[in-house]
Amino acid sequence: MKYVLPFLLFAVINIPTSSSIAQSDSDTDGVRMAVEDYVLGFYKGEADRIRRSIREDVVKYGFYMPRNKTEYEGSPMSFDEMIAYCDRVKERNRQTPDDAPREIEILDVLDKTAVAKLTATWGVDYLHLAKYDDKWMIVHVLWQSHPPKS
User: Fold this and answer.
1) Helical ranges in the chain per DSSP H
2) What is the extent of the structural domain holding 124?
3) What is the tally of structural domains in the chain?
4) Parallel, antiparallel, or unpaired for β 102-109 and 54-64?
């Protein structure tokens, strides 16, 4: 008995992706400003930048490699802990140098939601943002420290 497999034909349909749907420059600028406030808040110890760019109900979780260990550990950080961190940076005068990395990539911007990637001294953050009352705010952060060098 012979089996005949039907051939499947695939059609390529060009559907615009969300990143190809034009958003206003002000939306992209708003997302970038929120991410800038986030990173500079931590770098400079400026808690007001955190307050204006991050929702108080933010969910932030990250993975870091402790010194002298070979396994990542996870760590949540609340809004209040972010503010306290910034306050300690300022109190101890431990600001990050102006030339520290802060590469921001806007991955996608829709009319109410956006995604950005930040590469900073501590590692890489993936940020979800939402627009509330015409203001872009960070609502989720998932980060990881830089992988160990081999």
Assistant:
1) 25-44, 47-53, 79-91
2) 24-145
3) 1
4) unpaired
